[in-house]
Amino acid sequence: VGPVIVTVTVNAALDVTYRVDDLVKHASNRVRAVATRAGGKGVNVARVLHALGHDVVATGLAGGATGEQIRAELHAAGVPEAFVAVAGQSRRTITVVDSDATVLLEPGPQVAAGEWAALQGRLEELLTDARAVVLSGSLPPGLPVDAYSELGRLAARARVPVVLDAAGDALARGLEESPAVVKPNAAELAGLTAGDPLTAARELQRGGAQAVVVSCGPDGLVAVTPDGCWRAVPPARIRGNPTGAGDAAVAALAAGLAGGTPWPQRLADAVALSAAAVAAPLAGAVDVDVYRQLRPRVQVAEADPREGAPCR
Amino acid sequence: VGPVIVTVTVNAALDVTYRVDDLVKHASNRVRAVATRAGGKGVNVARVLHALGHDVVATGLAGGATGEQIRAELHAAGVPEAFVAVAGQSRRTITVVDSDATVLLEPGPQVAAGEWAALQGRLEELLTDARAVVLSGSLPPGLPVDAYSELGRLAARARVPVVLDAAGDALARGLEESPAVVKPNAAELAGLTAGDPLTAARELQRGGAQAVVVSCGPDGLVAVTPDGCWRAVPPARIRGNPTGAGDAAVAALAAGLAGGTPWPQRLADAVALSAAAVAAPLAGAVDVDVYRQLRPRVQVAEADPREGAPCR
């Protein structure tokens, strides 16, 4: 039997964090400490699912010395991976931390047609026994803009439901294959369609998505689903690092989809797991104790589509 | 027969250049282009010597995925290398270029006692047929502060003369084994001893150095040697990138030492090669045409030690 949940990261990254005293532009800055970690949204989702004990495999495209480091770091963390090697160099993201974060985002590697075909072949194999697949993150140069609808077609053929977490054109074109769930955040949604977020979410639903879950940062989630509309709110504001909170929500939505969990519980899981990601010191990690503690206290209420803006 | 010139880089680096439109602190910045290159002062010296057709080998300490990239890049450039592998990760230096350069310097890897001993063994082998050895750059964590005098002792035993290019304590302690040439720049010299640079150079000579060559940026070089004192001045100010100009001067001084070239010619070579490094667009490279063109026009004059400051 294959894995239950497959995550696809077409633009995997090595996330590097530099601690400096105070970053000075146009000067030489001594880095006090370096931390590296495999990243990219799908990789973060796989890591969270693995931490919760789910049977997951991370696939996608990874290349060069950076790609090797991404895979080695996943092996060290015990997260199963089945990445397809590409000739180009996977990107690094550098976060320079002083009192706040300055981020440098490398472009992804140029992906060749044969490499993209190899990933599709790999995904077909992994979908055999899967119960959910997560398509998450930006597209590297060389991939078609409708890459997520091509992968969605493979999932549909294998009858595996899709969670899609993308932005811009990659999201818009990804709707074509009717993903089970899309998870834009409020800002991405505002960039894609006009009007208030609930209207925008309904528009994504008309565009093809079966369910739309909008993340509203510390205010929780709002969902437009075939079973109804809900708002899920955390019991308290959690202080910490919001990077990776969206990926934790996607992990919960994928697990709920794979297990057939009813929507209100699924959303409560997603809100509690997001908060557990904010509480964890490392971006991309979750504090499992915080998750267990908050989970019973998340409030889920039916939302009235006429009330307007889903995010407070 | 072994190589004629050996360069030692105990803290090799992968030099990464990021082009951005305008680096914004505490924001997300998209990197337009990434260029990587093996670096560290000794590596740059080896590259220049190789470009001029000298028989050179680059050794030192390199580790982890970054160490592999450093070696792979030297192989691609055709520069012979005999680095000793260390368990730690070699450092990266990141230069973020917009209208000017913002530099992020990672610390070097922690070097274990056995790794340091392995480098000494490697150097002993390489010194068998060598006619000059270059000890260049900063010391990584774990090396003794007198590392350059320990390596200098091996060179002395093999009767191979040393060019030492270091700063601070690594330079001060490196004088103990009477290197043939030390090449501080004017700023490093000012940090080490009081008084005007010529007085300071003479103090380094009393400290053990047989000759002291002070680089004065666009003003050329001043040398205090057993054969006399000289000032060497380029025919014109060269515009460009001064990074690597000091390493090019060291390459010329090492080649002159290996070949027994008289001091005035050696200094003229060093000034012309420094200018050729400034003229080359990539840091660590030299424009060989500029070198050949400037070389006959460098002015070398005996300097009067009583005249005071050697840099204008």
The fraction of residues assigned to DSSP E strands of chain A is: 15-25%
The helix count of chain A comes to: 10
Strand segment count of chain A: 15
Shape of chain A: globular
The unreliable regions of chain A are: none
* Main pleated-sheet profile of chain A: 10 strands, mixed
Structural class label of chain A: alpha/beta
* Biggest chain pair interface: A-B, 28 and 28 residues
Going across the biggest sheet of chain A, name each strand in turn: 6-5-1-9-10-11-12-13-14-15
| Oligomerization status of the protein chains | homodimer
| Mean pLDDT rating of chain A | 92
Rg of Cα set of chain A: 19 Å
For the terminal residues of chain A, how far apart are their CA atoms? 44 Å
Task: Write up this protein.
Two copies of one chain form a homodimer. Helix content of chain A is 37%, strand content 24%. Chain A is of the alpha/beta class. The first copy, chain A, has a ten-stranded mixed sheet with strand order 6-5-1-9-10-11-12-13-14-15, with helices on both faces. In chain A, strand 5, helix 2 and strand 6 (84-86) form a beta-alpha-beta unit. In chain A, helix 1 (41-51) crosses helix 8 (245-259). Strand 8 (101-105) of chain A pairs parallel with strand 3 of chain B.
